[in-house]
Design a protein that fits this description.
Blueprint (H helix, E strand, L loop, with lengths): L8 H20 L7 H96 L11
Length: about 140
Amino acid sequence: MAIYREKDIFERRGAANEAKRAMLEKFKAKPAADDPAVLAKQAERKAILEARAIREAEKLKQKQERLAREAKERAEREAAAEAARIAAEEAAQAEAKQREAEENERISRLLADEAERKAKRDARYAARKARVGRVPPGFGGK
């Protein structure tokens, strides 16, 4: 069984110095700015950035087209809804006019019937008044 042993300060300091030395070597080993590998990497990054810009421009264009299409569709829907609303209002007005005309016709029929009944009643009344001085048949007049 392994026993855990704590590192003393000298070992820790040596490890830190070793890490610093490795970082310094890595920095010194970096190629120069005019190195072909560095130039190739820069060209590759530039190409990636240009491709990204093209993709973003295409995305923006598609988004604008989509928004324009949605606005057009929304305008068409609103126009259709407005036309339907106007048609419904006109139908309701026409129906109201028809009901009013039917009601007026019914009222005029009732008034005409009432006038006809009154005329018949007046005729009966006049006939009765005309008979007042006469003796009804079968009652023999003396």
